[in-house]
Amino acid sequence: MLNKERIIEFLETLHEHKMAKDIFVPLFQKMGLRDVRFTGGADEEGIDIEYYELTEPEKRKSYVGIQFKKGSLVYSSGGSKNSVKEVRNQAEEAFEKEIPDIDGHATQFISRFIVAVTGDINQRARKFIGRARQKGADRRIDYWTGDRLAEYIQGHWIEKFEEYFSDEIEQLADEGGTEETIIDAEYLYDNYKNIIIKCKKVKTTLGGFEWQIIESIFKLSYESGFESSVPIVDLLIELECTEDYCREEFEHLVSLGYLDFERGAVSLTGHANIFTQLLDAITEELDDAEEDPDNTWGLFNSLIK
Q1: Structural domains of the chain, count
Q2: pTM to 2 decimals?
Q3: What pLDDT is stored for residue 272 in this prediction?
């Protein structure tokens, strides 16, 4: 499996519109997002891809617009390219875009704007974003880094991605730039079949945002060396939301026996611990085989999708 760095390198060889249309439209369709459409071009109005989510419990369409940018997001005093201020200006334009809803006989507008960069978000930009969110001025704008984009590709579309860049991958192999992996999804399924099946079953009991909460907890636990609990404030930062916003999902997950809150921290309990077991197994296998630990999340997502 290609590691995240290589995936990002390949992405950055494409024009942003081609990257959105050729890579991320089919990827998001594979992930099950609804009515994914490429809308980039001369009249894009700040949006390269749009899709919609269904609100709960009303099941109303809530549209999301995504804009792709190569490189990192930075803070600058002006509105230069790839700056947070430029993004916010483009977001305001995107929020004004009219979306014809033929089935609903109405005109819709996006309710959430995502900026997806192939790089990272520098420290000054992160501080600016955090301050804006505290003031309530940036709550409808989310930011995806290259690391997250690579995880989505590893977990849901890696075979097609490698096929798309087959010539480049073959050239790297000829130059000695890639090596065969031992630990792949087939190997892990053969050796951890029961754990994987249980993970899939537990995941079916979760709503979309509930799964995001669970996933964020074991991801933070993994990054901290598999600490048994995660500070609630770290979880809220990862989810980019307030505690009140998550309260209903928290209560439901506690009632299912999946979460335990104690002294400002949260931990996975009961059947939800199966996800940590699988993640721990993948980590150990990659470590024993001396393979890239960056493959952990891609392998995990590909096994339980």
Answers
A1: 2
A2: 0.64
A3: 93
